[in-house]
Amino acid sequence: MSSSIRTEIAKARRIVVKAGSSSLTTPQGTIDAHRIDALVDVLAARRGEGDEVVFVSSGAIAAGLGPLGLAGRPSELALQQAAASVGQGLLFARYTSSFARYGLTAGQILLTADDMMRRSHHRNAQRTLGELLALGVVPIVNENDTVATDEIRFGDNDRLAALVAHLTRADALILLSDVDALYTGDPRQPGARRIDEVRGPADLAGVELGASGRVGTGGMITKVEAARIAGVPVVLTNAAQAAQALAGEAVGTYFHPQDARRMSSRHLWLAHATTGQGRVVLDDGAVEAIVQRRTSLLPAGVTGVQGDFAAGDPVDLCGSDGAVVARGLVNYDAAEIPELMGRSTRWLARELGPEYEREIIHRDHLVILTNSGTGAGDE
């Protein structure tokens, strides 16, 4: 593949770089100062060119293993949180010292998935990141592993990095792993073929997405998913080739943006940062109207409701076959919807009061998730 296709990476004015635990720590679980300094050298060089860099760093739990005398990543959540508590401070102190060699200030931002799901928290994170960049600070983002529970975890910092790319309206995303590219199978085994470029799902046919490493939580599957939702050019490679990746050279695997048109910040948040708190089941006509004509969801098209949610929560919309087609912010509590199902808004206003003459979900607060119509209307 010609490197000319990666000019978007080389010309990016704002770029998100994510490094996994294996790129930052020793096999024993301690911080690898030489690796961190080498990576900071690359990031500082890009920053010196006048571009903005946001760094998403794994490694807090891994960095805490050695000081706590733990042989490997613990399975117990409380021990993971304890390791993160010890490791996060050590990790950020190292970054602060390393960036200071170039006269750069680092700023720490710790997020949970709950911060992304709550719209007010999401906006606050977006404002903070924007202000740090405006002040010339290098934001260093990590999941807040000291308080995150299994129910509210990102699962891996690859997804967090893709969401940060949305938050900051970045131009490109670099995912640094312990593997130099995406392969059709385990690259240590014969027959595994390297994939240089991914334009869409067809290029991933037959690819075996491996399991996680020893100190990390992700695998290739989380990186492919991050590339799918990032909405910007993505390069997957290893930390040793970070400089070449940032320069737009033909290293690693290049993922073309899956969505040519960027959605609004609210719709990006709704599609990729939230989780449906329940389900609203639609008839075929309502599915067609929402997916193809991008209409609001009216009570007349609703045939069922599942789960316990409150007005304002994100809920998934699905057809009679159970397939999720959209997600939106619902205007009613779950307990209210059964009485509204199949009714016109005019009838509801006449029988129940004018406050019921409104949509179940307004089109401005709804995003399509099905492949036949992913996206949302322009604002």
UniProtKB/TrEMBL annotation:
Main location: cytoplasm
One term under GO cellular component: cytosol
Top EC class, one word: transferase
PROSITE patterns assigned: GLUTAMATE_5_KINASE (PS00902), PUA (PS50890)
One term of GO molecular function: RNA binding
GO-annotated biological processes: L-proline biosynthetic process
Coiled coil: none
Binding residues for ATP: K18, S177, D178, T217, G218, G219, M220, I221, T222, K223
Family of this protein: Belongs to the glutamate 5-kinase family.
Record-linked HAMAP family: ProB
Protein name: Glutamate 5-kinase
Gene from which this protein is expressed: proB
